[in-house]
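Rotation project, supervised by the postdoc (A.L.). Task for the rotation student: set up a whole-complex structure prediction and record inputs and outputs verbatim in this book. Inputs entered:
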Amino acid sequence: MSKYAALDEGQIRKALAFGYASPVVGLTVAFLTGAAISDLFGTLETWTWFAIQALIGAAIVTGAHFSAIAVAGSEATGNKGASKGAARLNLVLAIIWFYFVGIQSFAIGAMAIGGLVEYGPGHPVLKAPSSHLWLTELLPAQAFILLTLAGIYFFVTLRSKGSKS
Amino acid sequence: MSETKTFWGRINWGLRFPLLGMLLFWYLFLVSLYAEQVLTVNTWTPENYNGQNYVHPAIYLNLIGIAILVVTALIGRRIAAATIAVEPNLRLNRNTYAFTTVAIITALIASGILAIAVFLSNLNFGGTDTRDPMVRLLSLYVPIILDAAVLLFGILRAFVVKPKGAKNV
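Outputs recorded:
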């Protein structure tokens, strides 16, 4: 028996509200932050992108966590429609986010490796990665793929709250 | 069993195997790009600027990466199915199983994209490709056959020969 089966109506409603609100608020804050930074500095550095994606991912994982609690709590009342809707909303957003961040990590990594070759008028030259390349492209690319994998891990485990057994 | 104990207390290898496979695939992808750059630099001549007369190792490195992705997702799926057979109502097991399905589908899509990329980048329009037949065989025909084998293996093991615990999932 799950501990969430004993939740009262108010607690379920609160979890449901967080389940719906968390991804929407997270996305809005992330978009506004990105827009403000690009307005102020005229560019979006890779690490800024990372912070934006981490914020969106955290908001979706939090939303999944609360919607799972709402689903588990409303199992006893039999009124699961809205809770399942919140869970599905977070699932769809999570899938889009995973693919987007994953593809971004591949693209940044490819750009970093591409930057190792210097093409000139003659023979191309393979350079050793500079500290600047490490800090601005190679490290962020690895951070992006790790963010994607961590996001998947936390999403799947936190979405599984409220086990029936 | 409490879900909190499941989350923190037990290593969920059904979930970790595909994630590990994805990480290895990502690193192999970068290694394949680096290998491609090394080949370009070392074989560069004004007439042959993209290593046309050499077998590109990137194709095989990407193929190995996709094979790792498929196999780790399949192992994760077997583990998830086995845990479902023990605890059929535990959501973590069912969600892990569903995730391994997504991981396999992602690997199969990647495999399809690789086959199309290999095919399109080696088309011989107008018969102007003057490469050694062995280079052409190893750059075009063999990778496509191996890629199809990986694709078929993944599809059959994931969706036809399903793990025992997963009959009702």
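Student's summary: Residues 3-159 of chain A form one domain.
Supervisor addendum: Chain A has one domain: 3-159.
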